[in-house]
Amino acid sequence: MLEKHKNFEKVRKVSKSGQAEKYHVIGKPRPRHDAWAKVSGQTVYAGDHKVPGMLYAKVLRSEYAAAKLLSIDTGEAEKIKGVATVMTAKDVPNNETVTRFGQTHSVGGFEGLYRVLADKKIRFKGEAVALVAAKTLAIAKAAIQKIKVEYEPLEGVFDPVEAMKANAYLVGEDESNVICSYKIRKGNVEKGFTQADVIVENTYRVQMVDHAYMEPEAGVAWKDDEGVITIRASTQVIEHFRGVAAVLGVPHNKIRVITPMLGGGFGGKEDITVETYLALLVQKTGKPVSLTFTREESILAHSKRHPYVMHYRTGATKDGKLVAMEAELISDAGGYVYLSPWVLLYSTVNAPGPYDITHVKVDTHTVLTNNTYTSANRGFGANQPCFAYESQLDELAKKLNISPLEIRQKNYLHTGDALASGRVLEHAVETEQTAIKALEALGEPTKPRKPSEKIGRGMASCMSSYGRMTFLHDTSRSFVSVELDGTVTVRCGVQDLGGGQASSLAQIAAEALGVPMEDVTVFHGDSALTPLAGTTTATRQLYMSGNATLKAAATVRRNLLEKAGRMLGMDPAYLDIKDRQVFIQPERKPWMVVENESRECTISYGGDRGDIIISEVCGNNDPDTVIPLTDVIKAAAADGIELLCVAQFNAPARELLDFKTGQGQVFPDFTFGTIAMEVAVDIETGDVDVLKIVTCFDVGQAINPLSVEGQMEGGAVYGLGYGLCEEVILDKGITLTPSLAEYLIPTSKDVPEVEAIMIQSGGGIGPFGAKGIGEPANVPPPPALANAVCDAIGKRIYDLPITPEKILKALNAI
Amino acid sequence: MENTEYLKPNDIKELLLIMTENKDRATVIAGGTNLVPEIRDGVKTPQVLVDVGDLQELVGIQLDRDSITIGAATTIAEIAKSSVIHEHFPILSKAAGELGNPLTRNRATIGGNLANASPCADTAPPLMALEAEIHITNAEGQVRTVAADKFFMDYKWTHLDKGDVMTRIAIPKPNVAAKGSHTKLGLRKAAAICVASVALMLEKEGDAVKRARIAFGSVAPKPIRAYRLEQYIEGKPVDEKLLSDCEPLLQEEISPIGDIRGSESYRRFATASIFNRNLLQAWA
Amino acid sequence: MNTYNIEIKVNDEWREAAVTATDTLLEVLRSKLDAVEVKNGCEQGDCGACTVILEGKPVNSCLVLAVQANGKEVTTVKGIGTQDSPHHLQTAFVEHGAIQCGYCTPGLIVSAKALLDENPDPTREEIREGICGNLCRCTGYTKIVEAIEDAASKK
Asked: DSSP per residue over A217-282, as a string?
């Protein structure tokens, strides 16, 4: 039994979670590795990049939401001095391709038409009609003005419910506007409702919102010496090189996509934005091209969050047990399919919420209209149903005369329970804890500050998945190596939206290799030079690229410790690395392994090794021996031991769900959490003051608590905007909120301090037991707000955003 | 492509010369917070921009015996932070502090806010309630004074003609007994376009209103003074009965529209709410 | 086309540029003066990403015509501090985790510095008021306010 040595740190408690210190770097608040460059203005975002001789591009967009495109005359525009090229649909090698959601795994039926430039029929206002590249931006703008387009306006359809009808105007070239439908059938709802003592039935509506990232879409592209078209763009998916290649009709390995740090993504840069336009213009002109969307263009023409109409009927016994739920959700897919089927699937699985309900019937539909196309937006379909199911619960609680917490406690799912879609929740489910803690932290109620003020409190819990749908066989790759001077290099395709996706990898590699985080450099987001990590979407990066990085780093670590073991004459299981030193510790430390991986995994070269040449052995039994890591590295390098590893992590894969019953696993895991709010409502003006926000989530294991809190706080405010003041208002498909003066996102004065409480159950499937937080963090605010407002004024608002006008209407003041 | 000219006079004399030479083509610019985005969007295509933002004669707050004069090119930030304005005209101070955001306030000017002639102009209702006078010089150097409540003709149309330049805004010091009150409603707590606003000045004598000046913003094609409302409440005590009696009159005075920020009925109700609140506050 | 030769002192260095009457200071900073740290978020004064200090006051550079900045001093985030020699505001932002995507950060640092120059000991409410012209979509503002408060205490 070895004694404690002076080299060992004392075990300390981490304040927030009360966990004993298990890790050297994981779980410690650390400045992100990209923070200094950002705060000193050094970071070069996509639109900041300049290439000598680059042309400037502009996009001509349609004037109508629904119209026949009769003709385009680019003659005059092309004649302007300084114009390099004008392109329309006929100039695009493959103007129409089909996008499939799976990156490597085709899942037939889930496809959408990707049309680069408008052809024959306009499907939404802002659809791209033509491209111009010119020597200066001013010339490009002038050329756009000179392009003559002839339209024949068509009737269009702007309401998804109308668009579902038999004789509705057809948005696309199919026979129906309905893209797809899903259902869940569990038990028998009719029977269930007969067992209910109270039933609550309501229609909820949620509006179209914009991601409103601070950085509008941007990119610069050029052709390199080998003829590879390189696109440096703000994108969440560098894998779009495949889609771009298909449009251009060139091989995949002739398109390279690099993403610098993004100025925000939130799902709005998940679909192709500028990449194809840039590549086409580079291909046509042979010159570098730069394209940046204006804010108005961004609001007009990039994807939005789906508006939904949700009809819910929920029944409970007098004891508060949920016995029956029937829901119909209809989502507005806008002019093109994009990711609508996937978002709808998420909504379907999420429709009942994190609750045990005996009988469930869910029907969902997503429908084309001539509104702006809708696609991924932080939450990806989890948000909308949450507004409905959390509002329903509060209404039931009110009728039953029990508290909102109580009714939820009677129905929360726990580990081992199954969702209505049949999926058993195998991993940590701490929803109840998050609710109790969030409510507790609200503290004493604020007293009204004036006679017209009413104070109210509300809560909402949510479940929101992390990791991609399991029938997509998700994979991620990462490369880790140690340099001869002991510093660490990570190469990973991970796209960093600002959520610290790249920095987390640095922290994981630092933990595995026992070096300070500053010793790790991460090269990220280059489809040519970094192993592809998959999309930064679906709150999957920490889980996927985190695990891939851990796997790669753990392999290098194992090689190093085995060598160190021979140098020290010790069983490597008794060795650890910290602060660049290898030392002996009293207890066996288990090898770092990645858990919850698919059985059919493939480890690339550089991993488990072949012959080890035995070099010097210390034979020194002094337990105080410490070797500098660099010594081990040099010795291992001399032996020819591989000090690098590119690893692929395979998420466990499952079969496709059963579309008749909606039964299937669908998601790898969920994050559960609760947000509680206190508001003050002025009943004379309808104004709402948000006084307190508490957010509590089980994050499994916070890799970097500062980052996790940042996501929780930011998500609470992003979600609050959805609930309180944001709306893309369309009138027959025409945007009435064209800029940030009309489209209102919360300012620093609109929100109070957000208190973030992390629960760290360790029960996630990400590295070190982490769960994802990026999307889940923003799901609960709207229903928490609606519930708080209802608590304040005794009336419920059923559609978002909760404006002063709606409050006054609910109070029958107007 | 545009061929805009930019001229920057060093003093008033030069300014008048420029305005005479360019009378029909000149657009005065100071902070540019409205004008620059309009130029960018192609809404306005000025031929000659005449920059008065740095003209010393047009900048500054001057305290005289009976009035306070604000140069037309004085920034909103300066007005919001001025202790002189805060002391004598708290409703103007407050309205200035709620215009836009701290960054736009450092560039926006009081003259620009008025000249832009938006029905939502933040400084207009307080200036009207304070019975401010706007001094205008034409290209020939002739000066005229226009009362704030006569300055706005109709939607986006002011008393300013081509060649005119606003020089200063003079505000008579109110009676010591007068109290003011102001509220601006917006859909967000900062940087919000006004949905409805009210500014009023009230003088009490014994148990009755001696003198009332009431102005509204965003509820008509231009900022308005509610003369009939003022006449109605003068001579009466402010109480619940008065508030309910003058409600129909208030609704006749205003003519709000419905737009993306709210319906007509919402604006009507909200305006009544803030009017009542502010009247009671000024009366107390 | 009328062009004007102007001189602007950007972060203590006099720079020249030829501009039109309607070029904005933002456009000129980014395209002619290599100051791409000044960001374009909306180009109409709604987001604050383009905040610079002009003659001592924080302004939206998208609302200033370049010609109006002729002969004047402009400070961007790079004039406030660098990685090697940071301003304590920058250090506070890094340490508090107040930076996520970082796009609003250059403008925010400028606004915050101007705030602290005018009001060295602001309350949290005053901080929120002082930065309300700078929109942030990622952080929810909590850590930004904490960082500014911390920086103020370190004067």
From this structure: SEEEEEE-TTS-EEEEE--S-GGGHHHHHHHHT--GGGEEEE----S--TTTTSS-SSHHHHHHHH
Instruction: Give the tens place of pLDDT for each residue, C32-83.
Output: 999 999 999 999 999 999 999 999 999 999 999 999 999 999 999 999 999 9
3-state SS assignment for residue A371: coil
- Look at residue A7 and tell me whether its pLDDT is greater than 50: no
Judge whether residue A615 has pLDDT over 70: no
Q: Which of B189, B193, B265 sits opposite A741 (nearest CB)?
A: B193
Provide the 8-state DSSP code for A476. E
What is the three-class DSSP state of A661? coil
Nearest to A358 by CA among A409, A405, A419: A419
Q: CB–CB of A515/A628 below 8 Å?
A: no
DSSP class of residue C36?
Answer: T
Encoding tokens for residue C20? Answer: 């039109």
> Rg of chain A over CA atoms, in angstroms?
28
Of A82, A78, A83, A89, the C-alpha closest to A121 is: A89
Task: Assess whether pLDDT exceeds 50 at residue A324.
Answer: yes
Task: Tell me how far the alpha carbon of residue A328 is from its chain's centroid.
Answer: 25
Residues of B in Cβ contact (< 8 Å) with C129: 102, 190
Residue A390: partners with Cβ closer than 8 Å, 6 or more residues away: A353, A460, A461, A462, A780, A783, A784, A786, A787
Residues B231 and B216: their CA atoms lie apart, in Å, by: 16
C88-154: CATH topology is DNA polymerase; domain 1 (1.10.150)
Look at residue A616 and tell me whether its pLDDT is greater than 50.
no
Q: State the ipTM, two decimals.
A: 0.98
Separation between Cα atoms, residue B31 and residue B75, nearest integer Å:
8
Strand A626-628 versus strand A644-650 pairing type: unpaired
Let me know: does A533 contact A502? Beta carbons within 8 Å. no
pTM: 0.95
Distance CA A191, CA A559 (A): 62
CATH architecture of C3-79: Roll (3.10)
Q: Tell me what the mean pLDDT of segment C98-113 comes to.
A: 98
What CA–CA distance (Å, rounded) separates A416 from A439?
A: 25
Q: Which of residues 6-35 of C touch A (CB under 8 A)?
A: 30
Q: Where are the alpha helices (DSSP H) in A488-540?
A: 501-513
Question: Looking at the predicted structure, is the pLDDT value of residue A11 above 50?
Answer: no
Calculate helix-pair angle for B264-283, B240-253, nearest 10 degrees. 140
What are the tokens at B172? 């008579």
Helix (DSSP H) and strand (DSSP E) numbers for chain B: 12, 14
| Structure token digits, residue A173 | 């070239």
Nearest Cα of chain A lies from the Cα of C98 at a distance, in angstroms, of 8
- The rounded distance, in Å, linking the Cα atoms of B29 and C22 is 12
Spatial neighbors of B88 by CB under 8 A, at least 6 apart, are B68, B171, B173, B174
User: What is the reported pLDDT for A591?
Assistant: 73
Domain boundaries, chain C: 3-79, 88-154
Cα–Cα distance for residue pair B119/B216, rounded to 1 Å: 9
| pLDDT, tens digit, 9 for 90 and up, residues A208-255 | 999 999 999 999 999 999 999 999 999 999 999 999 999 999 999 999
Q: Over the stretch B174-183, which tens digit does the pLDDT of each residue have?
A: 998 999 999 9
Which of 31-90 (A) contact C at CB < 8 A? 31-32, 34-45, 47-48, 50
Residues of B with CB under 8 A from a CB of A: 1, 101, 185, 187-193, 260, 262-263, 265-266, 268-270, 273-274, 276-277
- pLDDT confidence of residue A471: 83
pLDDT tops 50 at residue A286 = yes
**Does C68 touch chain B if contact means CB atoms closer than 8 Å?**
yes
